[in-house]
Amino acid sequence: MRPSVMRSAAQLLRRRNYSSASGQQARKVAILGAAGGIGQPLSLLMKLNPLVSSLSLYDIAATPGVAADVSHINSPALVKGFMADDQLAEALDGADLVIIPAGVPRKPGMTRDDLFNINAGIVKNLCTAIAKYCPNALVNMISNPVNSTVPIAAEVFKKAGTYDEKRLFGVTTLDVVRARTFYAGKANVDVNTVDVPVVGGHAGITILPLFSQATPSTNALSAEEIKALTKRTQEGGTEVVEAKAGKGSATLSMAYAGAVFGDACLKGLNGVPDIVECSYVQSTVTELPFFASKVHACFAMCVVYCSCYLSDFIM
Ligand SMILES: NC(=O)C1=CN([C@@H]2O[C@H](COP(=O)(O)OP(=O)(O)OC[C@H]3O[C@@H](n4cnc5c(N)ncnc54)[C@H](O)[C@@H]3O)[C@@H](O)[C@H]2O)C=CC1
Ligand SMILES: O=C([O-])CC(=O)C(=O)O
Protein backbone atom coordinates (compact mmCIF):
# COMPACT_ATOMS: atom_id res chain seq x y z
CA MET A 1 0.00 0.00 0.00
CA ARG A 2 1.27 3.47 -0.82
CA PRO A 3 2.52 5.40 2.28
CA SER A 4 0.11 8.29 1.56
CA VAL A 5 -2.86 5.88 1.56
CA MET A 6 -1.68 4.34 4.82
CA ARG A 7 -1.26 7.80 6.34
CA SER A 8 -4.75 8.92 5.44
CA ALA A 9 -6.25 5.65 6.74
CA ALA A 10 -4.44 6.19 10.04
CA GLN A 11 -5.71 9.76 10.18
CA LEU A 12 -9.24 8.55 9.56
CA LEU A 13 -8.94 5.92 12.28
CA ARG A 14 -7.58 8.49 14.69
CA ARG A 15 -10.47 10.81 13.89
CA ARG A 16 -12.94 7.98 14.44
CA ASN A 17 -11.30 6.92 17.69
CA TYR A 18 -11.35 10.11 19.71
CA SER A 19 -9.54 8.44 22.58
CA SER A 20 -6.37 7.75 20.63
CA ALA A 21 -6.50 11.10 18.85
CA SER A 22 -6.81 13.27 21.94
CA GLY A 23 -6.10 11.23 25.04
CA GLN A 24 -9.79 11.53 25.99
CA GLN A 25 -11.78 8.36 26.44
CA ALA A 26 -14.96 8.15 24.38
CA ARG A 27 -18.03 6.93 26.23
CA LYS A 28 -21.38 5.19 25.94
CA VAL A 29 -24.32 7.51 26.53
CA ALA A 30 -27.92 6.28 26.88
CA ILE A 31 -30.90 8.61 26.42
CA LEU A 32 -34.18 7.34 27.92
CA GLY A 33 -37.17 9.08 26.35
CA ALA A 34 -35.14 9.64 23.17
CA ALA A 35 -38.12 9.94 20.82
CA GLY A 36 -39.76 12.83 22.69
CA GLY A 37 -39.73 16.58 22.23
CA ILE A 38 -36.50 16.90 24.22
CA GLY A 39 -35.17 13.44 23.43
CA GLN A 40 -34.90 13.94 19.66
CA PRO A 41 -32.87 17.18 19.55
CA LEU A 42 -30.85 15.98 22.56
CA SER A 43 -30.01 12.78 20.66
CA LEU A 44 -28.89 14.91 17.72
CA LEU A 45 -26.66 17.07 19.93
CA MET A 46 -25.11 14.10 21.73
CA LYS A 47 -24.44 12.45 18.35
CA LEU A 48 -22.29 15.50 17.56
CA ASN A 49 -20.32 15.26 20.83
CA PRO A 50 -16.82 13.90 20.09
CA LEU A 51 -16.65 12.31 23.56
CA VAL A 52 -19.53 9.96 22.70
CA SER A 53 -18.49 6.71 21.03
CA SER A 54 -21.78 4.87 21.45
CA LEU A 55 -25.25 6.44 21.63
CA SER A 56 -28.08 4.29 22.90
CA LEU A 57 -31.55 5.70 22.20
CA TYR A 58 -34.41 4.20 24.20
CA ASP A 59 -38.11 5.08 24.24
CA ILE A 60 -41.40 3.22 24.53
CA ALA A 61 -42.42 4.59 21.10
CA ALA A 62 -40.90 5.50 17.73
CA THR A 63 -37.26 4.88 18.60
CA PRO A 64 -36.29 2.95 15.44
CA GLY A 65 -37.11 5.96 13.26
CA VAL A 66 -35.27 8.43 15.46
CA ALA A 67 -32.24 6.15 15.73
CA ALA A 68 -32.12 5.56 11.96
CA ASP A 69 -32.39 9.28 11.31
CA VAL A 70 -29.71 10.35 13.84
CA SER A 71 -27.41 7.48 12.80
CA HIS A 72 -26.94 8.97 9.32
CA ILE A 73 -25.06 11.98 10.69
CA ASN A 74 -21.38 11.63 9.83
CA SER A 75 -19.93 11.86 13.33
CA PRO A 76 -18.13 9.01 15.12
CA ALA A 77 -20.78 7.93 17.70
CA LEU A 78 -22.42 4.62 16.80
CA VAL A 79 -26.19 4.88 17.25
CA LYS A 80 -28.54 2.09 18.28
CA GLY A 81 -32.27 2.37 18.94
CA PHE A 82 -34.15 0.32 21.55
CA MET A 83 -37.88 0.19 22.13
CA ALA A 84 -39.40 -2.76 23.90
CA ASP A 85 -39.08 -3.25 27.67
CA ASP A 86 -36.88 -6.26 27.06
CA GLN A 87 -34.40 -4.05 25.15
CA LEU A 88 -33.80 -1.72 28.09
CA ALA A 89 -31.06 -3.99 29.46
CA GLU A 90 -29.08 -3.81 26.23
CA ALA A 91 -29.70 -0.08 25.91
CA LEU A 92 -28.17 0.51 29.35
CA ASP A 93 -25.47 -2.14 29.42
CA GLY A 94 -22.08 -0.48 29.97
CA ALA A 95 -23.43 3.07 29.81
CA ASP A 96 -21.19 5.73 31.37
CA LEU A 97 -23.87 8.40 31.29
CA VAL A 98 -27.66 8.02 31.29
CA ILE A 99 -29.79 11.06 30.46
CA ILE A 100 -33.51 10.82 31.31
CA PRO A 101 -36.04 13.06 29.54
CA ALA A 102 -38.76 10.34 29.69
CA GLY A 103 -42.14 11.45 30.97
CA VAL A 104 -45.04 13.75 30.33
CA PRO A 105 -44.66 17.53 29.96
CA ARG A 106 -46.90 20.29 31.36
CA LYS A 107 -49.88 21.90 29.70
CA PRO A 108 -51.02 25.49 30.45
CA GLY A 109 -52.50 25.79 33.95
CA MET A 110 -50.48 22.87 35.34
CA THR A 111 -47.58 23.03 37.79
CA ARG A 112 -44.60 20.70 37.52
CA ASP A 113 -45.95 18.92 40.61
CA ASP A 114 -49.04 17.94 38.61
CA LEU A 115 -46.72 15.64 36.62
CA PHE A 116 -45.67 13.75 39.74
CA ASN A 117 -48.16 10.88 39.61
CA ILE A 118 -47.20 9.79 36.09
CA ASN A 119 -43.52 10.69 35.99
CA ALA A 120 -42.63 9.26 39.41
CA GLY A 121 -43.58 5.77 38.21
CA ILE A 122 -41.67 6.18 34.92
CA VAL A 123 -38.54 7.39 36.69
CA LYS A 124 -38.79 4.65 39.33
CA ASN A 125 -38.88 1.91 36.66
CA LEU A 126 -36.06 3.39 34.61
CA CYS A 127 -33.84 3.88 37.67
CA THR A 128 -34.51 0.31 38.79
CA ALA A 129 -33.11 -0.80 35.43
CA ILE A 130 -30.13 1.58 35.71
CA ALA A 131 -29.29 0.10 39.13
CA LYS A 132 -29.32 -3.34 37.55
CA TYR A 133 -27.59 -2.80 34.21
CA CYS A 134 -25.25 0.19 34.62
CA PRO A 135 -24.97 0.90 38.37
CA ASN A 136 -21.86 3.04 37.95
CA ALA A 137 -23.28 5.39 35.34
CA LEU A 138 -23.73 9.09 35.96
CA VAL A 139 -27.47 9.88 35.83
CA ASN A 140 -28.79 13.20 34.51
CA MET A 141 -32.45 13.61 35.49
CA ILE A 142 -34.46 15.92 33.24
CA SER A 143 -37.98 14.52 33.89
CA ASN A 144 -40.16 16.79 36.00
CA PRO A 145 -40.77 17.56 38.77
CA VAL A 146 -36.97 17.48 39.14
CA ASN A 147 -37.34 18.50 42.81
CA SER A 148 -39.06 15.11 43.33
CA THR A 149 -37.74 12.83 40.58
CA VAL A 150 -34.15 13.18 41.84
CA PRO A 151 -35.04 12.11 45.43
CA ILE A 152 -37.10 9.24 43.94
CA ALA A 153 -34.09 8.10 41.92
CA ALA A 154 -31.93 8.33 45.05
CA GLU A 155 -34.34 6.09 46.97
CA VAL A 156 -34.44 3.52 44.14
CA PHE A 157 -30.64 3.40 44.04
CA LYS A 158 -30.43 3.17 47.85
CA LYS A 159 -32.84 0.25 47.83
CA ALA A 160 -30.74 -1.47 45.15
CA GLY A 161 -27.55 -0.75 47.11
CA THR A 162 -26.02 1.23 44.25
CA TYR A 163 -26.55 4.82 45.45
CA ASP A 164 -23.65 7.22 45.04
CA GLU A 165 -24.76 10.82 45.58
CA LYS A 166 -21.89 12.00 43.40
CA ARG A 167 -23.41 10.28 40.38
CA LEU A 168 -26.98 11.60 40.49
CA PHE A 169 -27.80 15.03 39.04
CA GLY A 170 -31.00 16.94 38.54
CA VAL A 171 -30.55 18.95 35.34
CA THR A 172 -31.18 22.62 36.15
CA THR A 173 -28.95 23.96 33.38
CA LEU A 174 -31.92 25.46 31.55
CA ASP A 175 -32.41 27.87 34.47
CA VAL A 176 -28.80 29.00 34.05
CA VAL A 177 -29.19 29.24 30.27
CA ARG A 178 -32.27 31.46 30.73
CA ALA A 179 -30.68 33.60 33.46
CA ARG A 180 -27.64 34.21 31.22
CA THR A 181 -29.78 35.14 28.23
CA PHE A 182 -32.13 37.46 30.14
CA TYR A 183 -29.25 39.12 32.05
CA ALA A 184 -27.18 39.71 28.90
CA GLY A 185 -30.19 41.28 27.18
CA LYS A 186 -30.99 43.59 30.07
CA ALA A 187 -27.42 44.55 30.96
CA ASN A 188 -26.50 44.90 27.27
CA VAL A 189 -23.39 42.73 27.58
CA ASP A 190 -22.07 39.99 25.28
CA VAL A 191 -24.03 36.85 26.21
CA ASN A 192 -20.96 34.72 25.48
CA THR A 193 -19.17 36.30 28.43
CA VAL A 194 -22.06 35.98 30.90
CA ASP A 195 -22.44 33.55 33.77
CA VAL A 196 -25.17 33.53 36.43
CA PRO A 197 -25.26 30.86 39.13
CA VAL A 198 -28.75 29.51 39.78
CA VAL A 199 -29.28 27.61 43.03
CA GLY A 200 -32.18 26.06 44.96
CA GLY A 201 -34.52 23.87 42.96
CA HIS A 202 -36.31 23.63 39.63
CA ALA A 203 -39.84 24.92 40.22
CA GLY A 204 -41.16 28.49 40.52
CA ILE A 205 -39.76 30.33 43.53
CA THR A 206 -37.35 27.49 44.35
CA ILE A 207 -35.37 28.64 41.27
CA LEU A 208 -32.94 31.20 42.72
CA PRO A 209 -30.83 33.04 40.13
CA LEU A 210 -27.98 34.83 41.92
CA PHE A 211 -27.74 37.96 39.82
CA SER A 212 -25.63 39.50 42.59
CA GLN A 213 -22.92 36.99 41.58
CA ALA A 214 -23.42 37.40 37.83
CA THR A 215 -20.37 38.03 35.69
CA PRO A 216 -19.53 40.41 34.17
CA SER A 217 -20.95 42.44 37.05
CA THR A 218 -22.77 45.60 36.22
CA ASN A 219 -24.11 48.52 38.22
CA ALA A 220 -26.38 49.42 35.35
CA LEU A 221 -29.30 47.32 36.63
CA SER A 222 -31.69 48.69 39.23
CA ALA A 223 -33.16 46.62 42.07
CA GLU A 224 -36.46 46.66 40.18
CA GLU A 225 -34.77 45.27 37.06
CA ILE A 226 -33.05 42.50 39.06
CA LYS A 227 -36.42 41.63 40.59
CA ALA A 228 -37.99 41.40 37.15
CA LEU A 229 -35.10 39.27 35.82
CA THR A 230 -35.49 36.94 38.80
CA LYS A 231 -39.22 36.55 38.21
CA ARG A 232 -38.73 35.93 34.48
CA THR A 233 -36.10 33.25 35.17
CA GLN A 234 -38.35 31.57 37.75
CA GLU A 235 -41.25 31.59 35.33
CA GLY A 236 -39.26 30.80 32.18
CA GLY A 237 -40.77 27.32 31.93
CA THR A 238 -44.30 28.67 32.25
CA GLU A 239 -43.55 31.35 29.63
CA VAL A 240 -42.77 28.56 27.13
CA VAL A 241 -45.69 26.33 28.22
CA GLU A 242 -48.10 29.22 27.65
CA ALA A 243 -46.52 30.20 24.33
CA LYS A 244 -46.82 26.59 23.11
CA ALA A 245 -50.50 26.69 24.15
CA GLY A 246 -51.01 22.99 24.92
CA LYS A 247 -48.28 21.60 22.64
CA GLY A 248 -45.84 20.85 25.46
CA SER A 249 -43.07 22.66 27.29
CA ALA A 250 -39.50 23.72 26.51
CA THR A 251 -37.84 21.15 24.25
CA LEU A 252 -35.20 22.85 22.09
CA SER A 253 -33.66 25.05 24.78
CA MET A 254 -33.86 22.07 27.15
CA ALA A 255 -32.10 19.82 24.65
CA TYR A 256 -29.35 22.45 24.37
CA ALA A 257 -29.12 22.69 28.18
CA GLY A 258 -29.12 18.89 28.53
CA ALA A 259 -26.33 18.61 25.97
CA VAL A 260 -24.27 21.25 27.82
CA PHE A 261 -24.69 19.40 31.11
CA GLY A 262 -24.08 15.99 29.52
CA ASP A 263 -20.89 17.32 27.94
CA ALA A 264 -19.72 18.61 31.35
CA CYS A 265 -20.29 15.13 32.81
CA LEU A 266 -18.31 13.47 30.02
CA LYS A 267 -15.49 15.96 30.47
CA GLY A 268 -15.58 15.31 34.23
CA LEU A 269 -15.36 11.57 33.59
CA ASN A 270 -12.35 12.21 31.39
CA GLY A 271 -10.58 14.30 34.01
CA VAL A 272 -10.87 17.66 32.28
CA PRO A 273 -10.16 20.22 35.04
CA ASP A 274 -12.20 23.25 36.08
CA ILE A 275 -15.58 22.09 34.82
CA VAL A 276 -18.30 23.73 36.93
CA GLU A 277 -22.06 23.54 36.39
CA CYS A 278 -25.08 24.16 38.59
CA SER A 279 -27.07 21.02 39.37
CA TYR A 280 -29.73 19.76 41.80
CA VAL A 281 -27.84 17.28 43.96
CA GLN A 282 -27.80 15.76 47.43
CA SER A 283 -26.65 18.57 49.64
CA THR A 284 -25.49 19.76 53.04
CA VAL A 285 -25.45 23.42 51.97
CA THR A 286 -28.84 24.03 53.62
CA GLU A 287 -31.10 21.91 55.81
CA LEU A 288 -32.71 20.57 52.64
CA PRO A 289 -31.54 17.11 51.54
CA PHE A 290 -31.28 18.18 47.88
CA PHE A 291 -30.31 21.63 46.64
CA ALA A 292 -29.06 23.00 43.33
CA SER A 293 -25.58 24.49 43.68
CA LYS A 294 -22.40 24.91 41.73
CA VAL A 295 -20.92 21.47 41.30
CA HIS A 296 -17.32 20.82 40.35
CA ALA A 297 -16.31 18.04 37.99
CA CYS A 298 -13.27 16.49 39.58
CA PHE A 299 -11.10 13.49 38.88
CA ALA A 300 -11.06 10.98 41.73
CA MET A 301 -8.70 8.02 41.77
CA CYS A 302 -10.02 4.84 43.38
CA VAL A 303 -7.85 1.95 44.52
CA VAL A 304 -9.86 -0.60 42.58
CA TYR A 305 -10.65 1.42 39.50
CA CYS A 306 -10.26 4.92 38.19
CA SER A 307 -13.37 6.99 38.28
CA CYS A 308 -14.34 10.59 38.45
CA TYR A 309 -17.53 12.44 39.09
CA LEU A 310 -19.08 15.79 39.62
CA SER A 311 -18.86 16.67 43.29
CA ASP A 312 -17.79 19.26 45.84
CA PHE A 313 -19.99 22.24 46.35
CA ILE A 314 -18.03 25.38 45.75
CA MET A 315 -20.80 27.87 46.38
N1 LIG B 1 -35.33 19.72 33.81
C1 LIG B 1 -35.78 20.67 33.02
O1 LIG B 1 -35.29 21.80 33.02
C2 LIG B 1 -36.89 20.38 32.06
C3 LIG B 1 -37.64 19.23 32.17
N2 LIG B 1 -38.63 18.93 31.30
C4 LIG B 1 -39.36 17.67 31.49
O2 LIG B 1 -38.87 16.69 30.58
C5 LIG B 1 -39.89 15.68 30.38
C6 LIG B 1 -40.02 15.34 28.91
O3 LIG B 1 -40.51 16.45 28.19
P1 LIG B 1 -40.78 16.34 26.60
O4 LIG B 1 -39.65 15.69 25.93
O5 LIG B 1 -41.22 17.67 26.16
O6 LIG B 1 -42.02 15.32 26.59
P2 LIG B 1 -42.52 14.39 25.37
O7 LIG B 1 -43.86 13.90 25.75
O8 LIG B 1 -42.35 15.11 24.10
O9 LIG B 1 -41.47 13.21 25.38
C7 LIG B 1 -41.38 12.29 26.43
C8 LIG B 1 -40.94 10.97 25.87
O10 LIG B 1 -40.82 10.06 26.95
C9 LIG B 1 -41.24 8.80 26.46
N3 LIG B 1 -41.56 7.90 27.57
C10 LIG B 1 -42.65 7.87 28.36
N4 LIG B 1 -42.54 6.86 29.24
C11 LIG B 1 -41.35 6.27 29.01
C12 LIG B 1 -40.67 5.16 29.58
N5 LIG B 1 -41.21 4.46 30.58
N6 LIG B 1 -39.48 4.82 29.08
C13 LIG B 1 -38.93 5.53 28.06
N7 LIG B 1 -39.52 6.57 27.48
C14 LIG B 1 -40.72 6.92 27.94
C15 LIG B 1 -42.45 9.12 25.57
O11 LIG B 1 -42.72 8.03 24.69
C16 LIG B 1 -41.95 10.37 24.87
O12 LIG B 1 -41.30 10.05 23.64
C17 LIG B 1 -41.14 16.24 31.03
O13 LIG B 1 -41.35 15.66 32.29
C18 LIG B 1 -40.84 17.73 31.17
O14 LIG B 1 -41.57 18.34 32.19
C19 LIG B 1 -38.93 19.77 30.26
C20 LIG B 1 -38.22 20.94 30.09
C21 LIG B 1 -37.18 21.36 31.00
O1 LIG C 1 -41.80 24.33 32.75
C1 LIG C 1 -41.83 23.13 32.45
O2 LIG C 1 -42.80 22.39 32.64
C2 LIG C 1 -40.63 22.53 31.82
C3 LIG C 1 -39.44 22.99 32.57
O3 LIG C 1 -39.08 22.44 33.59
C4 LIG C 1 -38.78 24.22 32.13
O4 LIG C 1 -39.00 24.68 30.99
O5 LIG C 1 -38.02 24.78 32.92
UniProtKB/TrEMBL annotation:
Gene3D superfamilies assigned to the protein according to its UniProt record, in alphabetical order: Lactate dehydrogenase/glycoside hydrolase, family 4, C-terminal, NAD(P)-binding Rossmann-like Domain
Name this protein carries in UniProt: Malate dehydrogenase
Single GO MF descriptor: L-malate dehydrogenase (NAD+) activity
Keyword Oxidoreductase on entry: yes
Enzyme Commission number, as recorded: 1.1.1.37
Record keywords, A-Z: NAD, Oxidoreductase, Tricarboxylic acid cycle
Assembly and interaction partners: Homodimer.
Domain Lactate/malate dehydrogenase N-terminal, chain residue ranges per copy: 28-170
Domain of life: Eukaryota
Family statement: Belongs to the LDH/MDH superfamily. MDH type 1 family.
Any one of the GO BP annotations: tricarboxylic acid cycle
Catalytic reactions on record: (S)-malate + NAD(+) = oxaloacetate + NADH + H(+)
Signal sequence interval, chain numbering: none
Provenance organism: Aegilops tauschii subsp. strangulata
Domain Lactate/malate dehydrogenase C-terminal per the UniProt entry, residue ranges: 172-295
Pfam families: Ldh_1_C, Ldh_1_N
GO cellular component: mitochondrion
